[in-house]
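seq:
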Amino acid sequence: MKEKINFALVFHFHQPIGNFDHVIEHAYQKSYLPLIKMIKKFPKIKVSLHYTGYLLEWLEKNHPEYDDILKEMSNEGQIEIIGGAFYEPIIPIIPDRDKKAQIELLRDYIKKHFNLDIKGFWLAERAWEPHLPKILSECGIEYILIDDFHLRANGLYEEETFFPYITEEQGYIVKVIPINEPLRYMVPWKQPWEPVEYLEKNKNTEGSRLITLISDAEKMGVWPAGDMTTYDICYVKGYDGTPWLESWFRRLTEGMDSWLNMLHISEYLKNYKPKGLIYMPTASYDKMSYWVLPTRARRSLENLIQKAKWKQFGEPFSDELLQFLKGGYWRGFLVKYPESNLMHKKMLYVRQKLINYEEEFGKSENLKEIWIDIYKSQCNDPYWHGQFGGVYFSFMRETIYSCLINAERKIDKLLKQRNQPTNNLYEKDLTFDGRSEILMENEFLNVYIQPHYGASILEIDIKNATHNILNVFTRKEEAYHDPKEKFPIDRWRKQAFIDHFIQNAFIMNQLQIPIDKLEENSLEKKVYFDEFEERGNFAGTTYEYEITSKEENQIANLTKKGKIKGNNVQIDKVIVLKNKTIEIKYKIINNSKEKLDTHHYVEFPVYIDSDISQNIILANNNEINVKNISNWKGSQLHIKNSKKNLFLTISTQKFCNFLIYPLMTYVTTDGGYDTLFQGAVIGLQSKIELKPSEVYNNSIIIDFKDE
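struct:
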């Protein structure tokens, strides 16, 4: 009998919610369109395609002719479309009801547009957890695509991953299609004959083996590749003057005359039974399991992997290590990055508001668009970071918050129509860390306070602008940072109004000073790098608190006794929400027998726009360029962004020293090493001189206006 191998080729097309039109258009012109045209040019090449729902909607709106091409190829049997969850969430971390709803949304869209019934499922970031078979089976999913990494980490060897398997949960089954790792790293990075050679060497006489390759469609056109892009490789000159994809498809077509059987996964499953039963550990693809680890652990694991790849542990021990070396799993991003966790937990919180409304007033058609806002907020890209920016991209986080705040606005409107209260003040462990936050909510603003983290404010939502003004990012050390270079690393999370005490004052009236021009030992530079000496023990610690409501006022009284330079000091901080105004009232009491001489310093980090040029801050009739560092003495500044309907004024009861600096993070992205603007940090410094038992009072007022 002639030896044969079955080969299934799958391309995954995805764009995150809120991505810029010009970015998606570029991907369309350089990847999506040329890729599908190249496939169409080789009618024997059978391909399965997965499109996320947001991208399908974009294509339908902007390039309906592309839909026509897909329909034609589908009718001819050349392509098969694979399902998934519509807005590409990490499916294990969203509630079961939402899993089903997102799967049904995409299934219904594909049925309507292509008249196809979906049996396969694309698992976003291949984030697998063992409870999934039940939900997937209930949704009519027959098979899922999972990296062979998942199987090899469970003890299978390479040749054992050339078959589908069955897994189950509570008797509900789903078939598992392993994605081949060697091919994934060959296409399109090796010569076209190399992935063909790999397939041929793994054929067998039974002809029952299935090797499946999945590639991101964007990889076939818009990824960087040294001094070229993958568009140059795939469609222009390849590595030898011939377009890579054309050469590869030609070689695959030639192989179909003898040893290669190219088919859709559904066709294979009609002709062959799965190999048997398997249970897979919680996992995502190999690199994701490294990226999710805390920085120190990630460096350690990647060092071990590198040594094993270079055979530094000898043969065969190095290969054995590579099979079983794995890191954490996807949910670890919610611990590694508090910014990810806050978005995820706010999603759950807003979602519960909608559930509560349904339970009290019943389900209705007008709630469907609110559910869509919730589903959009579950898009996975802004929740993690690895080779790609992910959570570091402020505009992606902004989209998540915009969806959630918009959902809240709609719920508030429905409650108002039923004469139900929309003002709320209560305690809730919003972030699931075992400690309660204080949540203040009215028609115009949400204010979330963390008494256990320096009585700081971690979120301020401006409802009419659907904007979280505190959508910033804490600077942290990443595994890829060069230890020889100096990066600003924050000791405390970038939340608003953490109480610091500094011995010295800023030098006044230094406007528009580039960071690299600051004097080496200046206080301004130390603050920018978060290296100033902390003279108190209040920052990031727990304050006692009480909450009260008085008419339209929602009030949090927070207090802490501590020390500043050995002096016994008490801080009483009162945060008041009234209509469109937040007031932070300070009372600092010197309970020592000695004079207290210090400077109180707080920060209000603001996210206005990911485009630094759109961050307009006005002070003393001057427009501040937030690319640089500026400081001055005053009592008021203004922020405006007409495009986003953002207008606010920050005022202080007493004159203080203002400081503004840009919050920059240093990250790797798909374009290489990059510096990303996260927001502008507004610092306020007040001189404190108190005799024993004396009291210092000040007030900071943030007034949000309509224009």
